[in-house]
């Protein structure tokens, strides 16, 4: 089964591209969803994160207060690494399990929607690496306007990720998503054609 790595900086529209690839018939393993599932109330990963960042990041309902965890985890490189050391191995194990399940079900290709694909060196394990690229200032605007993030928080999160040029350098295909949705669709169609030719 082919593994298609899909990545891009926060606010790049990577999830939109993932949905389009899924609609074209390629199942998606979403690392962010895996992370959320791993931190479900009562989970071991959530308990480990609470030990590291404070029990009050868990609300009265037992669910993670994501905004509070973000405030504590993304203040410095050290704190971010502390969180990653807990969550990344768990995400990797569960992602591998989901890929194996898709392969058992007969999928010929599957997409790994993974924000840190390149940072973690996982692009080396992909048959094709697709990077969704958007100028940093445009990403800040989208994060503030569409996701309601504070501008300083948006800039801080972008700065915590690798640079756009480094991401582009590792790509087999770069999708330029600076424009409207109409400009995105033909580029995704080209990716779909490329995957089908690889099968």
TrEMBL record:
<feature type="binding site">
    <location>
        <begin position="11"/>
        <end position="16"/>
    </location>
    <ligand>
        <name>ATP</name>
    </ligand>
</feature>
<dbReference type="Pfam" id="PF01121">
    <property type="entry name" value="CoaE"/>
</dbReference>
<keyword id="KW-0418">Kinase</keyword>
<protein>
    <recommendedName>
        <fullName>Dephospho-CoA kinase</fullName>
        <ecNumber>2.7.1.24</ecNumber>
    </recommendedName>
</protein>
<dbReference type="GO" id="GO:0005524">
    <property type="term" value="F:ATP binding"/>
</dbReference>
<comment type="similarity">
    <text>Belongs to the CoaE family.</text>
</comment>
<keyword id="KW-0173">Coenzyme A biosynthesis</keyword>
<dbReference type="GO" id="GO:0015937">
    <property type="term" value="P:coenzyme A biosynthetic process"/>
</dbReference>
<dbReference type="GO" id="GO:0004140">
    <property type="term" value="F:dephospho-CoA kinase activity"/>
</dbReference>
<dbReference type="InterPro" id="IPR027417">
    <property type="entry name" value="P-loop_NTPase"/>
</dbReference>
<dbReference type="InterPro" id="IPR001977">
    <property type="entry name" value="Depp_CoAkinase"/>
</dbReference>
<keyword id="KW-0963">Cytoplasm</keyword>
<dbReference type="GO" id="GO:0005737">
    <property type="term" value="C:cytoplasm"/>
</dbReference>
<comment type="function">
    <text>Catalyzes the phosphorylation of the 3'-hydroxyl group of dephosphocoenzyme A to form coenzyme A.</text>
</comment>
<keyword id="KW-0547">Nucleotide-binding</keyword>
<comment type="pathway">
    <text>Cofactor biosynthesis; coenzyme A biosynthesis; CoA from (R)-pantothenate: step 5/5.</text>
</comment>
<keyword id="KW-0808">Transferase</keyword>
<keyword id="KW-0067">ATP-binding</keyword>
């Amino acid at each position: 089964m082919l593994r298609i790595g899909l990545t891009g900086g926060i606010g790049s529209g990577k999830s939109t591209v993932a949905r389009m690839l899924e609609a074209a018939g390629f199942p998606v393993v979403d690392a962010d969803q895996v992370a959320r599932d791993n931190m479900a109330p009562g989970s071991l990963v959530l308990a480990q994160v609470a030990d590291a960042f404070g029990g009050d990041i868990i609300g009265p309902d037992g669910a993670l207060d994501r905004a509070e965890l973000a405030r504590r985890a993304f203040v410095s490189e050290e704190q971010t690494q502390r969180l990653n050391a807990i969550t990344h191995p768990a995400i990797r194990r569960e992602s591998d399990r989901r890929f194996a399940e898709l392969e058992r079900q007969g999928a010929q290709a599957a997409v790994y929607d993974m924000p840190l694909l390149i940072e973690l060196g996982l692009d080396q394990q992909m048959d094709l690496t697709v990077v969704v690229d958007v100028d940093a200032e445009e990403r800040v605007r989208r994060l503030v306007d569409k996701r309601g993030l504070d501008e300083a928080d948006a800039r801080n999160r972008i700065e915590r990720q690798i640079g756009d040029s480094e991401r582009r350098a590792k790509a087999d295909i770069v999708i330029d998503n600076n424009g409207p949705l109409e400009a995105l669709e033909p580029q995704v169609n080209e990716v779909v054609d490329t995957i089908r030719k690889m099968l």
